[in-house]
Inverse folding.
């Protein structure tokens, strides 16, 4: 089997350290197995996606040395493929149109909350008769499309990082929306879980390696693979990057985008090296200065920790200094000039 992995950023912001670290792990895994690393831009959210973010992401990945073998593919150019998949699920009666209004959904959630239950869609439009559908359509309601989720299902997979993971169908929030509302009879804008599965099947992804915030999505996506009669890939969920207080690293902690690290004077080799250590322990813990190429043969998921990885500025600064020390004086001078100029400008 040839390993095929992907990084699938959404261009709704600059390249984030968390996405970049996931890209590093995918890249290392691909190189270790002489596999293929694919870049896919997940830009189906028309309102929030911006070309300048795509530019920032691709520039940042290249700057870090994370060259991709295929892509970039853009989900916005593949909408027909997703719509076809939704139609197939409708034809197989594994998906259906739900005509609930946002007020009805709101009311339903409020009632669940009042009963002390977790909010979920109660599958109320799962078995509408043609007459009921026609009546809703006559009212001018625009349906979303939902995928059936069996509450009684146990979803189990062997995660590359976390071992056996088990989810109950009943914990997935009820039948899931896979396409936004549209005129009756049409298929609206397809949503994340659907598009990802269609793409991962089409691009023959063998290992889906992404942040642990996607675990619940994985459970839903496994059901979609089954519905599309496709082989389920392997999954690996990488630990979150945490701040010093042990909470998820966020904008409030200061710099989180790769272009900002670059502006601060971090070298790409040092940052890539540091990100590799965010959640992965090298076989020889004393040898922690390496290039991505050098470390790729040693990289595997057995040594990726389950616990969140604390971001350690001192360690990053120390690593950066190690790389700076290795630069010849004249080259270092050339590299420093833009920073000095920038500093001078800021003092003017
Ligand atoms: N677009 C998703 C994100 O940026 C990708 C998730 C995935 O890798 O499936 O979080």
């Amino acid at each position: 089997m040839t390993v095929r992995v992907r990084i699938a950023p959404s261009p709704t912001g600059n390249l984030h350290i968390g996405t970049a670290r996931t890209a590093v792990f995918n890249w290392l895994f691909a190189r270790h197995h002489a596999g293929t690393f694919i870049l896919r831009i997940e830009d189906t959210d028309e309102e929030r996606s911006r070309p300048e973010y795509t530019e920032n992401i691709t520039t940042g990945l290249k700057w870090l040395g994370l060259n991709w073998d295929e892509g970039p593919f853009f989900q916005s150019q593949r909408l027909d493929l997703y719509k076809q998949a939704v139609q197939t699920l409708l034809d197989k009666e594994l998906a259906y149109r739900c005509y609930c209004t946002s007020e009805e959904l709101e009311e339903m959630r409020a009632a669940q909350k009042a009963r002390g239950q977790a909010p979920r869609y109660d599958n109320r439009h799962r078995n509408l008769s043609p007459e009921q559908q026609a009546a809703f359509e006559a009212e001018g309601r625009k349906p979303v499309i939902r995928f059936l989720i069996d509450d009684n299902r146990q979803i189990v997979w062997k995660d590359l990082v976390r071992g056996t993971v088990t989810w109950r169908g009943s914990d997935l929030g009820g039948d899931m929306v896979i396409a936004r509302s549209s005129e009756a009879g049409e298929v609206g804008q397809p949503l994340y879980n659907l598009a990802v599965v269609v793409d991962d099947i089409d691009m023959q992804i063998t290992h889906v390696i992404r942040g642990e915030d996607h675990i619940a999505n994985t459970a839903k996506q496994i059901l979609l693979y089954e519905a599309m009669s496709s082989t389920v890939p392997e999954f690996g969920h990488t630990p979150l990057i945490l701040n010093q207080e042990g909470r998820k690293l966020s904008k409030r902690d200061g710099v989180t985008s790769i272009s900002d690290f670059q502006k601060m004077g971090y070298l790409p080799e040092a940052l890539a090296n540091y990100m590799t250590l965010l959640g992965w322990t090298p076989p020889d813990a004393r040898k922690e200065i390496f290039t991505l190429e050098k470390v790729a043969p040693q990289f595997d998921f057995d040594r990726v920790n389950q616990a969140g990885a604390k971001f350690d500025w001192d360690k990053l600064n120390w690593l950066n200094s190690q790389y700076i020390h290795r630069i010849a004086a004249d080259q270092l001078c050339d590299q420093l000039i833009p920073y000095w100029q920038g500093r001078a400008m800021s003092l003017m």
